[in-house]
Amino acid sequence: MQDAPPPLTEPQITRRHVVNWRMPRPRLAVGRHAQRAPHQARVWLLISLPVLFFLTAPVVAILLRVSPAGLLENLNNRTVVQAISLSLTTTAITLVISMVAGTPVAYLLARYRFRGRMVLDTLIDLPMVLPPSVAGIALLVAFGRRGLFGSYLTDAGIELAFTQAAVVLAQTFVAAPFYIKAAIAGFAGVERDLEQAAQIDGAGAWQVFRYITLPLAATSLIGGAVMTWARALGEFGATIIFAGNFPGRTQTMPLAIYLGFELDLNIALTLSVLLLGTSFAVLFVVKRVLRRHL
Question: What's the CATH code, domain 76-293?
């Protein structure tokens, strides 16, 4: 009679054993413990009510203040139309710039380790935590008429401050990091084995990036792009300092809300409802997309 094989020791554990191992399913609570769960949920809900009320009350107040008829009427206002048109145009340009310029930076930070990488990563995070007024002042002293680089641009006949280009630059400065950080996470999560297998089959570096890396990181890239667009749409502080608040030229939706609060509250409320609905829709779509792919 043959002896039973000795139990596996740690060095003998292979990938096959890890794959075949399954975590035991937890037992379902029965009896008294199962009946206590709904009661505990109600207790936690009661504790959370003050915070939930504080977070939802302002949103509900805006929605109740504007009637559907008043919303449709204010949408025909010239100031509202100009602000919406300018916001959609500038944010679309900002999104394209962020994706085209930010993708190589994200791939570099996700795949390579080099001296100064932490400093570069921190500089990318910096606009996300800077006060908007500081971001606007920084852009002005850098690219304004008397700024560090603006004087050279002025000599070349290029004016950036208080133009629509300044709106795009302000939005890109504060919103592009959202795309770059999401893209870094997406590229870092792609399995290197798949890329190496494609290279063994004869695929070039660009083919691997286009047909393997990009599709596998697409969920993160799309999520980052949507968040970047939403952040650019709501940008206010840096824009009003670097681009000004000129109706029809640099007045985006947040700037029109600021001016409308002083001149016409109905315009401010209409644009607030539009931005509120857009922000909710963007967050909802991103959460659904990410949840579907996780």
Answer: 1.10.3720.10
